[in-house]
Every structure is written in C-alpha cells, then in structure tokens.
C-alpha cells in the first residue's frame, strides 16, 4: 500500500478529528457535573488506545514505502542499452525527406529524413533513434506497440509455386535432356 502525502494527511486529519471530538465530549460531560463510573473509564481508555493505535498504523503503513534503500530505486530505473545501430535500422522504413505534419517527438516539420514504424506512425529518423536509445526499448512513442523489423521480405516458395499454378504452365518451354 503506497500512500501519497495528501492521502496520509487526509487519514490523519480524519482520525484526529474523531479523537478530538471524543475528548471534547468527555470534557463537556465533566464540566456539566457528570461523573464517570468504572465502566465509563474503561470504555474511554479503550477508545483512546484504539484511536492512537489506528493513527500509529496509518503512519507506519504510509511511510514504509518511502524508506526503501536508494540502491533498489537505482536498479529499477536502470535501462538496458541498445546493442547496435543495425537493430534500430531494421525497425524503420524510409519514406521521404519531409514530414507532411509536425513530428510528434520534436514538434517541428524540418527537412529531416522521415521513417515509418511497423504501426504506421511517422517520425523523423533522428528523433525516433534518440527515442529508442533513451527508452531502452522498441515501442512506438505514439501507441506503445512493439516495433517489428521492417526488413524487405522475399516471397516464400509456396507463394511462388501458387503463382506459377495460376499461370498456364503449357506456355513454358519444355527443356529436354540432350
């Protein structure tokens, strides 16, 4: 359970208000000449003990996450470096020299080389390379999808065979062994 400063302050204010209201009622009762029996004193001490216990638990639970060692925080913020420029290049498809609209990363339409990711979002090449290097992953800054390699794929054998089947095979010359 991680509490923010406002939430901690709200809990403590609510608990303090309830405690003060209880004490105020006790003081008014005593000032008006009321007496307390043994059972009243036991009840009052029980309520005060429970209120103080709840306040202590609230403070301990909300302050515990902030007492983590700095080493744990540094390890969680560490990003793995990108191995090579070739890995980034495989994720990009070069489109043209200019971007028709503002680059979502740098917010300009300068004359930089424009590339497209596998999710079809367009960025300046220099901007998206820097984004990949700083983030340590290959996710699109716009939609957060993992960017796939954009290498040009050669058709596989089955698609070539099906294309040949669609054509008239009789038009191909027969090769005879001589």
From TrEMBL:
Gene3D superfamilies: Zinc/RING finger domain, C3HC4 (zinc finger). The chain crosses the membrane at residues 7-31, 43-64. It holds the Pfam family zf-C3HC4. The keyword ATP-binding does not apply. Keywords: Membrane, Metal-binding, Transmembrane, Transmembrane helix, Zinc, Zinc-finger. Residues 103-144 form the RING-type domain. One of its GO terms (molecular function) is zinc ion binding. This is RING-type domain-containing protein.
């Amino acid at each position: 359970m991680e509490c923010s400063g406002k939430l901690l302050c709200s809990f403590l204010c609510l608990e303090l208000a309830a405690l003060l209201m209880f004490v105020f009622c006790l003081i008014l009762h005593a000032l008006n000449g009321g007496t307390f029996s043994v059972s009243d004193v036991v009840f009052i001490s029980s309520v005060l003990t429970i209120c103080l216990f709840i306040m202590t638990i609230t403070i301990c639970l909300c302050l515990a996450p902030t007492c983590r060692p700095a080493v744990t925080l540094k390890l969680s913020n560490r990003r793995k470096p990108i191995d090579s420029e070739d890995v980034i290049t495989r994720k990009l498809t070069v489109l043209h020299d200019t971007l028709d609209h503002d680059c979502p990363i740098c917010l300009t339409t300068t004359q930089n080389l424009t590339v497209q990711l596998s999710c079809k979002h367009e960025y300046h090449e220099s901007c998206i390379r820097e984004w990949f290097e700083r983030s340590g992953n290959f996710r699109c800054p716009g939609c957060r999808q993992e960017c796939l390699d954009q290498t040009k794929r050669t058709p596989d054998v089955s698609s070539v065979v099906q294309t040949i089947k669609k054509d008239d095979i009789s038009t191909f010359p027969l090769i005879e062994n001589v």
